[in-house]
Automatic annotation (TrEMBL):
Stretches assigned to the Solute-binding protein family 3/N-terminal domain: 37-258
Residues making up the signal peptide according to the UniProt record: 1-18
Keyword vocabulary terms for this entry: Signal
Pfam families in the record: SBP_bac_3 (PF00497)
PROSITE patterns: PROKAR_LIPOPROTEIN (PS51257)
Protein name according to UniProt: Amino acid ABC transporter substrate-binding protein
InterPro entries: Solute-binding_3/MltF_N
PANTHER family in the cross-refs: ARGININE-BINDING EXTRACELLULAR PROTEIN ARTP, MEMBRANE-BOUND LYTIC MUREIN TRANSGLYCOSYLASE F
Entry keyword Signal: yes
Amino acid sequence: MKKWILGSLAALSLIALTACGSATEDTSLKKIENKGKIVVAMNPEFAPFEFKTLVNGKDTIVGADVEIAKEIGKELGVKVEFSSMSFNNVLSSVQSGKADIGISGISATKERQKVYDFSETYYESKNVVIVKKSEVDQYKTTTALKGQSVATQKGSIQETIAKEQLKGANMVSLVQNGEMINELKAGKVNGVVLEKPIAEGYVAKNDDLAIASIDLKSGDSDAYAVAMPKGSTALKKKIDKVIKKLKASGKIDTFVKEAYDLSIAE
Ligand code: ARG
């Protein structure tokens, strides 16, 4: 009798253990392979990384991040679908499973690493302040914008960088980068904080804007990486392989350069 009870207890705990095992099983890669496609969340108004342009008369999302996504699709043998949204929704859509990954110039900060898995980083960029060209001599230090309005993109790390470093400035958080630039041109804000390659693109296309010589510090984990749901070990391995190869061959820099030229040519 006792033996029988012990035996069934052992069997029960075995079942319980197996159940636990499958609950935490890493399906990150299998899920995508089974679907035959990978859904990539991005905010395509961030040239040269992702932006919209006309290709053969059709509105198309292009840019360095798009090229990286395509390489990932090739490696996994699946189709790539881009899901465009505002930047403050990119990470949450990866968490909710609406998108499989996020590639959107996302800085892999320590805070975000607590919630998401990140690939190897693929790009490092500095933060700069865009101002009106006519006022560029007025704004040379981090305290020069005191009492003035400074815009940053909602949900971006620039919100924190501006708040912490441009002491005394009034922070304006806007959903769209284009909106920030328009507010600056209209004189409604006095500065816009963006990462350098993005800022350079806007300045190249707007004669009335310039990059101020204000020196902003970057965090040590602000480089861009691909965001995945926590626990995506198998998927991360594949994506890291792609990123490593693209970095080693200098392809990432080529993607950025080509996309930049295309973005300012339009
Ligand atoms: N690197 C910054 C961040 O992660 C800004 C990224 C904004 N990206 C975009 N596609 N609008 O917060």
